[in-house]
Amino acid sequence: MNAATEYQVMKRPQDDEQRTMVRKVAVSSFMGNFIEWFDYASYSYFATVIATVFFPSSDRSVALMQTFGVFALSFILRPIGALFWGAFGDKRSRKSALSLSIILMSGASFLIGCLPSYEAIGLAAPGLLMLLRMVQGFSASGEYAGAATFLGEYAPSSKRGIYCSLIPASTAIGLLAGSTLATVMTSNLNTVALSGWGWRIPFLLAGPLGLIVHYIRTQLADSPVHEEMTKALENKEKTAADGASPLKVLFRDHLRELVISFGASVLNAVGFYTVLTYLPTYLSETVGMDATQSFTITTICLVLYVLLVFGMGHISDRFGRKKVLIGACVAFIVLTVPAFAILNTGLFWPILLVELALCATLSANDGTLSSYLTETFPTNVRFTGFAFSFNVANALFGGTAPFIATWLIYTTKSTMSPAWYMVGIACIALVAMILSHESTDKDLASI
């Protein structure tokens, strides 16, 4: 046996262990994001029902704005949660942070499904709803960033884009499950059943699913590969000149990267929540389309989105993250206003084609952003930098997107106003991406 062959034989067990670890991390990342976004999709898709349960009002638009207002309030704690989970993950353990956050997030979702209505307990009902949504926001703020960071650190450099695209894909599959469930339930249940118990089902499902993910993640904590990475991070921190916290290092040494990452994330925030969660409500409440038809269109679009997200991750591996993200910005600027004009026709097939085009554009952004943000920051502040920039963008622009869209229509009396809002956001993201640096295919340990 020559030296090369002997080396390969000695290396195989370690390679097999590495591949096994990547698969386990991928599964846990997928399931964690699935639960989070299944819940958020359910809240958005059942927004009109939740409005009648918790916010009874003679003005349907006001009740809907109150419902989306609570949706937006759940994002207030996201920046705080991002700093907490980011520092936890950077200084201690990625998986420990994710194992704890999933319990808080799924537990809050389960309790929402148990809440009494406004009719039963009065103002306490929307108050408790708001409190639980804020717990969700705090706990969920580390999920997306933490899962992408951990998976990206294990993925081969040349395939990091397609590996990290699993994170937005799992997000979309969560939305797809929520959309499918909403379609089936609205088609088969009457208004009384939906308001009484139907809307609670997706939230109650989060409880057992969260326990499953928590179990998987606690098992991953004992992985030798994970322990080796954690030890490397700890040694790096011990040898640091001032022992500064990840947050201090982030703002002191990486402020430019943080600002650009925030700018890149705003389009993801507005585009994602507008195209994939708000449009079903827009079509049914503003355009007047049948709710079953609007949910059906969204379900079809989500299937395409999941497939395209993986494709965009692969394209970004080949051509670079910056080029793909710039292309997505330009496409949103050009397509959004004409797309909304067609949405307002209320015709099924034109609306389906337009939403498919918007989903394809969104997939270029979403399928690339997670790997881009992972590559932007060094190891000692990667989780914190990713989580903070991503969650601040979502807190300010993502969680408020349905509320702002509803408010713009209500105040301007123009159904086109959400389109112009998205165009403005796309322009901000375009400037950020032009100012950014390309980090595709770099070794994360060297960044």
From TrEMBL:
GO terms for cellular component: plasma membrane. It is found in: Cell membrane. The keyword Nucleus does not apply. One of its GO terms (molecular function) is symporter activity. Keywords: Cell membrane, Membrane, Symport, Transmembrane, Transmembrane helix, Transport. The chain crosses the membrane at residues 37-57, 63-85, 97-118, 130-151, 163-185, 197-216, 258-279, 291-312, 324-341, 386-410, 416-435. It is a multi-pass membrane protein. This is Putative proline/betaine transporter. It comes from Bifidobacterium aquikefiricola. The lineage of its organism: Bacteria, Bacillati, Actinomycetota, Actinomycetes, Bifidobacteriales.
